[in-house]
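ok here's the first one, seq then struct tokens
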Amino acid sequence: VVNYSPLYVERELRHQILDSGTTIMVVPDVKVMHSRVAAVASEAGLKTVIVCPMRGILPWLKGILFQLFKRKDQAVFSADDGLHLKFSRLIEGAGRPKPVVIDAERDIAVLQYTGGTTGVPKGAMLTHANLTANAAQVITHVGCLRPEDERVLGVLPLFHVFAMTNVMNIPISLGAEIILVPRFNLPDLLATIAREKPTIFPGVPTIYTAINNASGVTKDGLASLRLCISGGAPLPAEVRHTFEALSGCKLVEGYGLSETSPVLTANPPLGIIKDGSVGTAVPGTVLEIRDLADPHRMVALGEKGEVCARGPQVMTGYWQRPEDTASVMTADGFFKSGDIG
């Protein structure tokens, strides 16, 4: 699987399709997204574009309204052009797919592309073992999750590695219910919390800040929440304190990267949370602060250096980029994060 952002422009789509070797793309029948994919499909080498109806993933009434009033926003395409395939056609067949035998430690499950902040976006090769290990690490580290009894609120986009693990993979591992919200809209989000009563809420600091600043938010309206997890950006201490006082719920911060599936550290909700800290390493993870000039030497206590990590969640490397892989992996198996600690 290769995750794509629906906000990608044609240039970004073209690069990632060509770089990853994507041959099948799944898109909603929304004109603004489909048109970008259609524009690059031929030159990028796409063989099939599976088109899914937005109406089918909306609640019944909203689906009807979308069909009636958003017709101009729907993609127009031919299902007989050799490129497009309707999702309904895909699932109507009576195929009997053969079980696929995988080597969990070697076979790639996801190509998770980096943000490209230090150059061209690269595909981090995450194996089945990487992803299942990271889910198990977080579940063990948190220590208070209840299998088959949690309800996880998913407002973050699943193409992002933080949401992929915390909103999708961990709930699946727990047998938890996933409550998906199409996009972040504060009134809708608060109404969903009050109506669906989620127990776990992964988010980013801007969402918790918006809730803190919203009028009319009460502890009763957030009473179902047992644990909130912040990632994606540093969590200001005042945001955490205000949210915890408002909700009566623990808000913990974690740290990780696309290359580490992503979670490396997290504050334990049952332990002491220190302001400005991203917590302790999740089980099975070794973190070291190493010298910037000599990545094989740990720095002295109190000295700054590069955060380096080793563990079962660390990628096997960058897709078809052996030189880039060699530049971030040490001889003793540590991943050089590029972050200073």
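and now the second one, same deal
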Amino acid sequence: MKRQMNILLVEDDNLDAMMIERALNRVAPDATVKRAVDGLEGLELIEADVMPKPYFVLLDINMPRMNGHEFLRALRASQTASDSIVFMFTTSDSAQDIAEAYRERVSGYIVKPQGTAGMNTILHTLQGFWTACEPPFTPA
């Protein structure tokens, strides 16, 4: 059975968010996508149980109010959402950012591609990953 793809996009840049959302609409038209403009809003959406489970997060690093690393630390400390699946999705290719993200237990670190074809390829790969993998078990 094909599982619904539910995505929380945490991205402050409107142009990047629009490009990601358009690419998702092409490769996964049935996906549910909710957007937060920074880490604080992303946490609020998760804590308010707005995201249908199971879901995964596409997370930028450089954002106002709460950046991606701060978001990850708060998420991993959460009693209810610490097992959330998170992919860092950022323009930063800094070795320090990559190492810190993996210490914070991201499922993957993806440097945003330039152009539509690269974006489609990456999001299509994520869709395949989502379909193939079992999500964390959540007791009823």
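notes on #2: The longest helix spans residues 116-132. The helical segments are 14-27, 39-47, 68-77, 95-103, 116-132.
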